[in-house]
Amino acid sequence: MAHPFVVVGGDAAGLSAASKFRRETDRDVVVFERGQWVSYAHCGLPYFVEGSVDRLTDLLSLSPSDIADRGIDLRRGHEVVAVDPRSRTVTVDAADGRFEQPYSELLVATGASATTGDFDATLDGVFTIHGLDSAAALDAYLAPPDAYDPARLGDGPVDDDAVANNAALDSPDRAAIVGGGYVGVEMAEALTARGVDVHLFQRSGHVLQPFGPAVADRVEPHLAERGVTVHTDTAVDRLAGDGRVEGVVVDGDRIPVELAVLGVGVRPNTAILDDTDAARGPNGAIRTDAYGRTSLPAVYAAGDVATARHAVTGRETWIPLGLTANRAGRAVGATVAGTPTPVGDVAGTAVVKAFDMECGRVGLVDEAAATDAGFDPVSETITAGSRSGYYPGNEETTVTLVADRTTGRVLGGAIAGRDRAAIRIDTLATAIEADLTVAELTRLDLAYAPPFSPVWDPVLVAAKVVAGNL
Amino acid sequence: MAHPFVVVGGDAAGLSAASKFRRETDRDVVVFERGQWVSYAHCGLPYFVEGSVDRLTDLLSLSPSDIADRGIDLRRGHEVVAVDPRSRTVTVDAADGRFEQPYSELLVATGASATTGDFDATLDGVFTIHGLDSAAALDAYLAPPDAYDPARLGDGPVDDDAVANNAALDSPDRAAIVGGGYVGVEMAEALTARGVDVHLFQRSGHVLQPFGPAVADRVEPHLAERGVTVHTDTAVDRLAGDGRVEGVVVDGDRIPVELAVLGVGVRPNTAILDDTDAARGPNGAIRTDAYGRTSLPAVYAAGDVATARHAVTGRETWIPLGLTANRAGRAVGATVAGTPTPVGDVAGTAVVKAFDMECGRVGLVDEAAATDAGFDPVSETITAGSRSGYYPGNEETTVTLVADRTTGRVLGGAIAGRDRAAIRIDTLATAIEADLTVAELTRLDLAYAPPFSPVWDPVLVAAKVVAGNL
Predict the structure, then answer these.
(1) Looking at the domain assignment, is residue A360 inside a domain?
(2) Which chain B residues have a beta carbon less than 8 Å from that of A132?
(3) Which residues on neighbouring strands pair with residue B399, listed in sequence order?
(4) Cβ-defined contact of A350 to B457 (cutoff 8 Å)
């Protein structure tokens, strides 16, 4: 009997692969997940903490029984600790002991984990936002001890001890968020909604660095307007406290806080391949080709653990995001089932909400990065209306557009505004993946109607300005 | 001395051409406009009637003095009645007589006019929505005689007699809108906002025919929910009334109304070329090439009077819409100034708001039209969320996607929904103009964040389904 297709990791990439595989074939697929949670929306965690999502389990896409109904053999609480590519087996630790599982093909979809840098994350009141248990614990910590509602958890395999410990602690009045990336900005909004006085610390000159300074120039005052104190060019040296966090230390000064959220980075969970000679790429992520194949025979990787090809540079890159994880997993599932399917390039498309401000970015926004990649970047930032000027609700929309002077090709862009701004990044994402030039971009027949867009959409206004400067 | 560049028509295409021309050169440009209004937003008329735009003159983009400041010689009240391509002169009628104006190059940008079919548009209470004077007159008609506020007009060259006559008439209780196209649907919303009981009559089976039946299936119940009585498959035979409209006659029955808005079509204003042998295209529009050149030497045409190349079929088409008029005018201005600039293809991108419902369409949505154009269309309609399912405000979004079975190329699409639905058509517009296949569409790295889009944007969901059926 043939060995099964073995998938390690029960979230976006892993379950997309297993589901697609089972739709295409009746061969067996086994999914090993070291934790208890599977198929959850990582990007929804800030909105649960904020309170705009009622229950933790609302973030689950598929239940274990849904997964079983798809013909997937899901084993939770099963940690793959080693891979032997020669014998094509994985070593699995489970509650009832260790065993070897042979595979025909293997998909490593172990994701990424939040890092904590040099900060003492063992203190009470210090959280990373990674996984449902961390969100549940933070939610419990935010509630006053007499007001925590366990119904918030829904009916899932939550870490009850962590929740109970955090629910028993006094709720915080002031929080430090360390790191002004997506997680930091989303958490600033979430914690403000929970009544906490938020201080956001960003080491470099601007929050949301991948979106470029023009977006940050819209977001930072908006955060301030909503009560968030934004500290840019400010490194947090360390967390202070004994048992529980009591402050952040900045330039030798201690700012008292009772909550610290660390958003200082993520790293790929590559440990199971540490004893193999699987090739690595940027950030140590597992190197994959256009079909998600690693350098090991019959071993694939997909999602936040794997590299991908960048749509603009054509180079190997590591950009862990949700859609591309799902898509790569799905493609590997199809490929292993017998229909070779490219995982697709990544363009680094990302959107983020900061209160009423919507932001998007794609491709190469940073001119230095574009130069490093061999381009001669021309970057312009414009502001244009989101609707016809006379139509109520027209909002200033900022667009940064970057193109290559030599070829005219669109390299990247970023958008910020309050009215349907973020979703407009899809126009640029599509243009970039189609290798359009700026001249071609200026000639796109885009939507125009007073309630939705001015005659010249902000993206087209930016295109005209860049085209004029090439 | 060289003769000037002569432009006929002082709206989108004409003034875009003259403005661009003057930015590129110090040669003279003369713009003849037969009326008094210039540079106004035709697409804003329903929103003025609705009352969401305060003053008629808010719809003006440029004032005559702005235009003069650009170095454009604008002559209002100057009607070009004939063109002599041999002598390169136009004949102009003005208040102080007729004269001949020589030109070096000529741009015909005379736009289009609303048609009235066989309906008696001379009755009081019968309106087309074309031009500021018609909107001003309708606005006056809607106000009770003692409540009309002339401040609504702003300070522009309005037809005062028409306004005064209409303001003096009793305001209507019930309206018939004849034709369920963009204008009909937008006016249904506008008149409802003004407290009028609206009956919308559509000869064919669905409103918004160019958007396809799936969009209409969302819009029609929504219109009904908001109090509009939608009569599909219902032809209005004639308007009844003596002096003032008193009803519409349908299947021999008379439905009493005191207002009728005709949205039964538009036609290109080609009269000034009637005595020339300028080649014509669909609907009698002036045939133009990739640079807006007509078949006559040194004569260009742009905007609603001209044909264009269709981005999907590559064939000559006539789709009068605002952005492409502006863009074609701007391109002709650059070309005449010495920088040959293509006018660009048209994809037929259109978006429309119907109360809370947002709709968009692009390319070939109708399968029969796609077959006629030589394609083998595959069309699928899906419904998917506009946001992550757990995030508040998630709205069902309907997407129709049409592709060619032979090549996989994306041919067209349509969207309807309540949450950022219309603007998503730009993804498809960009994909279509870039000749992407459905497989390529499925691999686009589009925006994902719970407040703005689910992991798989509705456009991607549709792409996956169509790709699976090719």
Answers:
(1) yes
(2) none
(3) B382, B415
(4) no
- Tally Cβ neighbours within 10 Å of residue B138: 29
**Does residue A350 belong to any structural domain of this protein?**
no
User: 3-state secondary structure string, chain A?
Assistant: CCCCEEEECCCHHHHHHHHHHHHHCCCCEEEEECCCCCCECHHHHHHHHHCCCCCHHHHECCCHHHHHHCCCEEEECCEEEEEECCCCEEEEEECCEEEEEECCEEEECCCEEECCCCCCCCCECEEECCCHHHHHHHHHHHCCCCCCCHHHHCCCCCCHHHHHHHHCCCCCCEEEEECCCHHHHHHHHHHHHCCCEEEEECCCCCCCHHHCHHHHHHHHHHHHHCCCEEECCCCCCEEEEECEEEEEEECCEEEECCEEEECCCEEECCHHHCCCCCCECHHHCECCCCCCECCCCCEEECHHHECEEECCCCCEECCCCHHHHHHHHHHHHHHHHCCCCCCCCECCCEEEEECCEEEEEEECCCHHHHHHCCCCEEEEEEEEECCCCCCCCCCEEEEEEEEECCCCEEEEEEEEECCCCHHHHHHHHHHHHCCCEHHHHHCCCCCCECCCECCCCHHHHHHHHHHHHC
Statement to judge: residues A180 and A249 lie in one domain: yes
Q: Are residues B305 and B183 in the same domain?
A: no
> Considering only residues 350 to 369 of chain A, which have any Cβ-Cβ distance to chain B shorter than 8 Å?
350-353, 358, 360, 362
Over the stretch B327-379, which tens digit does the pLDDT of each residue have?
A: 999 999 999 999 999 999 999 999 999 999 999 999 999 999 999 999 999 99
For residue A405, the tally of other CB atoms under 10 A from its CB is 13
Confidence of residue B2 (pLDDT cuts 50, 70, 90): confident
Exactly one of B41, B43, B271, B290 is catalytic; name it.
Answer: B43
Pair A331, A420 in one domain: no
Question: Does residue B39 register a pLDDT over 90?
Answer: yes
Q: How many domains does chain A have?
A: 3
| Phi then psi dihedrals of residue B328, to 5 deg | -65, -40
Asked, for residue A345, whether it belongs to a domain, the answer is: no
User: What CATH number does residue B181 fall under?
Assistant: 3.50.50.60
Low pLDDT (below 50) residues in chain A: none
Overall size of chain B counted in residues = 470
* Per-residue model confidence (pLDDT) at position A127: 98
Residues 181-200 of chain B whose Cβ lies under 8 A from any Cβ of chain A: none
User: Hey, are the CB atoms on B423 and A447 less than 8 Å from each other?
Assistant: yes
Structural domain of residue A301, as residue ranges? 5-35+77-113+266-337
Question: Would residue B359 show up in a list of annotated catalytic residues for this protein?
Answer: no
Quick check: B58 pLDDT over 80? yes
Question: What does the alpha-carbon distance between residue A187 and residue A193 come to, in Å, rounded to a whole number?
Answer: 10
- Reduce the DSSP state of residue B89 to 3 states and report it: strand
- Are B390 and A43 inside 8 Å of each other by CB? no
Does A329 lie in the same domain as A370? no
By Cβ distance, the residue of B44, B344, B390 closest to A388 is B44
**Contact state of B443 with A433 under an 8 Å Cβ cutoff:** yes
- Split at pLDDT 50, 70, 90, the class of B1 is low
Residues A148, A103 share a domain: no
With beta carbons under 8 A apart, name residues in chain B contacting A362.
445
Across the range B80-96, mean pLDDT stands at 97
**Final residue of a structural domain among A262, A280, A315:** A262
Question: What distance in Å separates the CA atoms of residue A297 and residue A277, rounded to the nearest whole number?
Answer: 11
Note whether A390 contacts B327, CB cutoff 8 Å.
no
Cα of A87 to nearest chain B Cα, Å: 34
Task: Please choose, from the candidates A112, A89, A108, the residue with its C-alpha nearest in 3D space to the C-alpha of residue A32.
Answer: A108
Task: Identify the H or E element spanning B220.
Answer: helix B213-225
Closest by alpha carbon to B256, among B266, B264, B267, B248?
A: B248
Reported in sequence order, the residue ranges of B109-152 that DSSP labels E, i.e. its strands, are: 112-114, 126-128
